[in-house]
Design goal:
By secondary structure, this protein is an all-alpha fold. The protein has one domain (34-383). The chain has helices spanning 2-43, 49-52, 58-69, 75-87, 92-104, 107-116, 119-143, 146-157, 165-169, 179-184, 186-220, 223-229, 235-253, 261-270, 274-282, 288-298, 300-327, 348-369, 372-383. The N and C termini lie far apart (45 Å).
Length: 384
């Protein structure tokens, strides 16, 4: 018992130290990603989304993916915004395509992926996302009945609250004048600072949760346990198993948005296949709290329909990415991620963190000087 009492605090301390080291490793990337996302949101109006997505044509689906890539990476905000534009007349299939793109094609995700697990995963994430959306559109066209869609529409119009409703409704975009002038204007800089802080407020719990879980798993779960789970002793079978089980792990992790990237790094270091990691990343929209929000927004039947069709789309896209990247020799040979060697020392990461923390401080000052706290309180009140 004495040995156990000594080891438990030591193990917890080791996990917390790893979690903080990982946070330090990706901090500059988080600030850069959220900064770029804030700039894009400041010049892209949400008010036009419903008008731009009238049907499920290739043109509308392409626009949906582009708008999703230009939005916030917060999964809860994306889900809330999707319901909002659906209520305003957007095609349901295009709206869901927007939702999937908004959590899989955003700048902050790609940057952090490159930092923690490698540029190959960033390329795979972006290459597979359109494939995933394509599969989803095919499934919707063949299996989404008019009756189920009408039931979902009636439920959506009831306006049952989920999470991040205020964040989804907020639109401070500057749409008049040349792009650079809009960004550098007083209104543009204020909008950028507000979106930057609001996005952090929306996802900080997911980031913290992802880092804590990743830190614990990287320290506490033996390498042999990961290898057994991912069937590493059966390479061919593992290629099919990874994309199938990746979304299941994501569903049970309760972590979404960019918070699941540290977990993805743990899975890769533990022996998951390339496609398994990609499937895990795609499935942040299938975590249990979001499935419950689907139920509130669209009803139980549509929630189940979304679960099945999204899972099939994610697993299918990840499986294709697995074999395509293998054929192109783009799958990393070493199952090594930055997460397993994260530490705080004076290097380029520390220098970048200092630079981007200074930038974040400037945005935070403007946020406080331009009524940001009051808007944040309003956002939280709407989301309650």
């Amino acid at each position: 018992m004495a040995l156990l009492a000594i080891n438990i605090p030591a193990a917890i301390g080791h996990a917390l130290a790893m979690a903080f080291a990982m946070f330090w490793e990706i901090l500059w990337a988080l600030i850069l990603g959220f900064g770029l996302s804030a700039v894009v949101q400041a010049v892209v109006s949400k008010a036009e989304m419903s008008r731009l997505l009238p049907d499920d044509s290739a043109k509308s689906i392409t626009k949906a993916c582009a708008l999703g890539a230009a939005s916030s990476s917060c999964s809860y905000a994306a889900v809330a915004l999707t319901r909002s534009i659906f209520k305003k007349g957007a095609n349901f299939t295009s709206a869901i395509a927007f939702q999937m793109a908004s959590t899989n094609m955003v700048a902050e995700l790609s940057i952090i992926l490159a930092v923690l697990v490698g540029w190959q995963f960033t390329v795979a994430e972006f290459a597979g996302a359109p494939v995933m959306v394509f599969f989803l559109v095919i499934l919707f066209r063949n299996f989404l009945s008019r009756d189920l869609l009408e039931q979902a529409k009636r439920q959506a119009e009831r306006g049952v609250q989920g999470r991040m409703e205020g964040h989804a409704e907020m639109d401070m975009s500057v749409t008049e004048g040349p792009l650079l002038k809009r960004i550098l204007s007083e209104k543009g800089r204020t909008a950028i600072s507000h979106y930057f802080v609001m996005d952090w407020a929306a996802v900080w719990m997911d980031i913290a949760g992802g880092l804590l879980i990743a830190g614990a798993l990287s320290v506490w779960v033996p390498e042999k346990a990961w290898q057994a789970f991912f069937l590493t002793s059966h390479p061919l079978l593992a290629k099919f198993w990874g994309p199938l089980v990746g979304p299941v792990v994501a569903t049970l992790s309760f972590v979404c948005s960019v918070g699941n990237v540290p977990l993805a790094a743990v899975l890769w270091s533990g022996g998951s296949t390339f496609g398994g990691v990609i499937a895990f990343l795609y499935a942040d929209l299938l975590i249990i709290p979001i499935l419950n929000i689907y139920r509130k927004y669209y009803g139980m039947k549509m929630s189940a329909f979304l679960l099945v069709t999204m899972y099939l789309s994610m697993a299918g896209a990840a499986l294709i990415i697995e074999f395509v990247f293998q054929a192109l020799h783009l799958v990393p040979h070493s199952h090594h991620a930055q997460i397993v060697s994260a530490s705080i020392r004076l290097n380029y990461t520390t220098i970048l963190n200092i630079i981007f923390l200074t930038l974040a401080g400037m945005l935070l000052v403007r946020f406080f000087r331009t009524g940001g706290p009051r808007m944040l309180r309003m956002m939280n009140k709407k989301a309650a």
